[in-house]
Amino acid sequence: MNKLFLLFALLLSSISLQASAAACAVAQDGYCSQPDEYIMTLKKLELCTASPASLVNISSDLSSYDVTCTGSVTVGTGDLTFDLTSVVAGQQIATFASTTGLPIGTTFTHVKPTLSREIKMRGSVTIAAGSGYTGICSTDSVATAGSGNKYERMLAGKTSGTATLQTFYIGTDSGAASSRGTTSQNTVSAHPYKMCTAQNCSSSIGTGDGGANGSSNKWLPFDSLYGIAIEDVTSTDTDFSLIYPLSEPYTVGPTAPKIDIAFGSSGSLNAIATGAATCAMSPYYVKSKFTITD
Fold first, then answer.
1. How far apart are CA 167 and CA 169, in angstroms?
2. Tens of pLDDT along 6-29?
3. How many CB atoms lie within 10 A of CB 76?
4. What is the pLDDT of residue 61?
5. What pLDDT does 212 receive?
6. Which DSSP symbol is given to 102?
7. d(CA 33, CA 36)
8. 92 φ, ψ to 5°?
9. Strand, coil or helix: what is 89?
10. Can you say how many angstroms the Cα of residue 87 is from the centroid of all Cα atoms in its chain?
């Protein structure tokens, strides 16, 4: 699940919003597009003086799940829900956090956001080829995980009608450390990741590799704009955290700084054919770039 993450435009003193394309999480088997709405909830934001997370293991296909924030200073906490595709997102977020009172002389190198795993999206994806359904797959406000664990299901989309705001629950468990997987506890037989083929998930199928480290929502740590670490949560945790490097280390002076976040949600709505006339959908993380300046 190529998290975050992110996600969110954050204006502490001011905010900069720029387009930045996100990867398609199901590029091998499905398709992706830019959603019309991408609604998230920011729970906490911390600045860090250091972090053990790095991109050192990229070449060996290993990712980091250590979200330790050394020298943490919390600059915002609460429940801020916003649509990151909205031009007024920055105005909504401006009151969430403040850089006033940061310790002068302290150098910050990373940022740690904590987010709700509940994500709401509206939009459509064109599935152009494959052995199953081809055509438009749209978000469906009625679709649920049914009796299944909501963190272990890729929810059904709809193949006709107008896209409506759909609630998703993003999976972030690491699965096997050798496979960039972040799709719930899918290496445990009791927690297979499945794709719903019915609105209430009364019918479902396993992912292409039998449910272990399925192709949907794999976090991609080879790009720091997706963060360099993601929390390895359980199949019941409601929140997750990520670590992002600042574009440049920042040393606090006498003036409260501004934090600019550039983000983009292009490619963050994913769809895949699940049958001759059915499809499933999932959210993906957006790219985010954090910069602190005077």
1. 7
2. 333 333 333 333 333 344 544 445
3. 21
4. 43
5. 36
6. P
7. 9
8. -70, -35
9. helix
10. 20
Contact 262, 18 (CB under 8 A): yes
| Beta strand 194-196 pairing with 153-156 | parallel
**Residues in the chain, pLDDT under 70:** 1-29, 55-63, 87-95, 172-192, 207-222, 263
Which amino acid appears at position 169 of this protein?
Answer: Y
For residues 131 and 145, the answer to whether their CB atoms sit within 8 Å is: no
Spatial separation of the C-alpha atoms in residues 107 and 48, rounded to whole Å: 8
> What are the tokens at 294?
């005077």
Sign of the alpha-carbon dihedral angle for 83, 87, 93, 98: positive
The Cα–Cα gap between 39 and 42 comes to 10
Residue 127 to residue 113: CA distance in whole angstroms:
33
DSSP codes joined into one string, 159-226? SSS----EEEE------STTTT--SSSTTSTTS--EEESSTT-SSEEE-TTTTTT-STT---TTSGGG
Q: Which residue has the tokens 């449910």?
A: 211
How many Cβ atoms from other residues are within 10 Å of residue 105's Cβ?
A: 8
- Amino acid identity of residue 286, one-letter, is V
Tokens (6 digits) for 189: 């037989």
Closest to 278 (Cα-Cα) out of 204, 170, 168: 204
Give me the pLDDT at residue 234, please: 76
Of 251, 254, 257, 244, the closest CA to residue 288 belongs to 244
Q: What gap in Å lies between CA 215 and CA 196, rounded to an integer?
A: 14
CB within 8 Å of 278: residues ≥ 6 apart: 132, 133, 156, 159, 197, 198
Q: Is 56 strand, coil or helix?
A: coil
- pLDDT at position 259: 79
Domain boundaries, the chain: 31-293
User: What tokens were used for 116?
Assistant: 């709700």
Cα angle at 241 between 112 and 52, to 5 degrees?
60
The token pair at 48 is 């860090």
pLDDT of residue 263: 67
3-class SS of residue 125: strand
